[in-house]
Amino acid sequence: MSQEVPSFAVVGRVNAGKTATLATLLEVDDNEVLRVSATPGETTRVQVLPVVYHDEELVRFLDTPGFQQPVEAMREIQRLAGDGTPGPVHVQRFVAECGARFPDEVRLLEPVMAGAGVLYVVDPCNPLRDAFLAEMEILRWTGRPRLALLNPQGEIPAGQESAWREQLGATFNLVRTFDAHSARYEERRRLLESLLQIDERHGDAIRRVLGKMENEWQERRELAAEAIVDFLEAALLLRVHEPLDEKDEGLPARRERKRAEMTDRYFKKLAGIENECVGRLLKLYRHHLLRIDADPARHTGLDLATEETWRKWGLGRAQLAAAGAIAGGAAGAAFDLGVGIHSLGAGTVIGALGGGLAAFFKGGSLPELKVKFGGIKLAGGDGRNLVVGPPASPNFPWVLLDSMLLRYHGIVGRAHGRRDVEMVEAGAGESRVRAMASEKRAVLQKWFTSCLKGAPDRGLEPEVYGVVVNLLDVC
Question: Can you give the pTM of this predicted structure?
Answer without folding.
Answer: 0.81
